[in-house]
Specification:
This protein has 13 helices and five strands. The chain has about 300 residues and is mainly alpha-helical. The strands form two sheets. It has a three-stranded antiparallel beta sheet with strand order 2-1-3. A two-stranded antiparallel sheet has the order 4-5. The longest helix is centred in the middle third of the chain and has 50 residues.
Length: about 300
């Protein structure tokens, strides 16, 4: 689906304003998911807590939420009401479910820590009294998981998106204001891009896909998490550049494709094997990433060889 921003710049009706507010709130909601939502101490062992996690590290449903949100944003831009209305409802319920699970996990950790501290403090007091103060064991040693600022930022942006969505529904179905969907690119053109640029489209598809599935371990106590859990900005850049390459192919504009390919390849500076393997075997996502990267490098080398022959 093609994204067209022109209508957002020129529209000045109330329904246009509602769509702009909804779009901004959705972008802010996605951005807030990159922030740390919890300090996870439940997986700790021998004084080695998991540490701070964003929602992609804390919930296995977060990548699905991100995919649905990107589709929703594209639908809002293109004014495809039959897509973004149900997606807004699904994404809201999905985020509330994830937040509820995280909050429950933190509450459980706090209860366990409080019970452990109560027993430990009682034992410390008994030993201190029994030894006439000769042995004083520190109290409140048990730590617990806790919510961080990112959790509250998500709650705030989710509220903003809900208010914007309610305002849109009010204008659309109570005030009966109408919208005109933007025209979208025929599916045949998209299929043609894949058919005529098989190597490049396969490479960028694998690169983007790899970021949403278990990628690397952020801690020896964790299973592999999606790449968005560790480096959300880098993962976002990989997906955005993949989209720019596909958009350039769709528009038959090859001016910046080589630059985009080089940027994608440069992501290996972050996702290098020494970094990814430091806590153990990676997930399937990293294997897919390496395959996509190898295809991109092959494409770049072949393109340069072809250009040298022409010159």
């Amino acid at each position: 689906m093609e994204t067209k921003f022109y209508s957002f710049k020129t529209g000045n009706t109330k329904i246009d304003t509602a769509l702009k507010l909804l779009l901004i709130s959705l972008i802010l909601l996605i951005a807030s998911t990159f922030l740390k939502v919890m300090y996870d101490n439940l997986g700790s062992g021998a004084g080695n807590p998991v540490g701070n996690l964003n929602i992609y590290g804390a919930s296995e449903w977060a990548p699905l939420f991100l995919i649905f949100s990107l589709i929703e944003i594209s639908s809002v831009i293109n004014r495809r009401e039959k897509f973004f209305i149900p997606l807004r409802i699904v994404n809201t319920l999905l985020m509330l479910t994830m937040q509820s699970a995280i909050s429950s996990e933190v509450q459980s950790s706090e209860n366990i820590a409080n019970q452990a501290n109560a027993i430990g403090n009682a034992a410390s007091s008994f030993i201190s009294t029994f030894t006439f103060g000769l042995y004083n064991i520190p109290q409140d040693l048990a730590d617990s998981s806790r919510l961080l600022g990112g959790y509250h930022a998500i709650s705030f942006t989710l509220l903003l998106s809900s208010i914007s969505f309610a305002y849109y529904l009010y204008l659309r179905f109570v005030k009966k204001e109408s919208i005109v969907p933007n025209s979208s690119i025929p599916l045949s053109e998209i299929r043609n891009v894949f058919a005529t640029n098989k190597l490049l489209t396969a490479a960028i598809s694998l690169m983007a896909l790899s970021q949403f599935i278990p990628f690397n371990r952020m801690n020896s106590n964790l299973f592999p998490s999606p790449a968005f859990a560790d480096h959300p900005i880098i993962s976002s850049a990989i997906c955005i550049v993949s989209f720019l390459i596909f958009s350039s192919l769709l528009q038959r504009n090859n001016k910046f494709i080589e630059l985009y390919v080089i940027i994608e390849i440069a992501s290996l500076l972050i996702w290098n094997p020494f970094y990814v393997l430091r806590y153990g075997a990676p997930g399937l996502g990293y294997i897919i990433y390496i395959v996509g990267l190898a295809l991109l490098i092959y494409y770049e080398l072949r393109s340069r060889a072809s250009n040298n022959q022409l010159s």
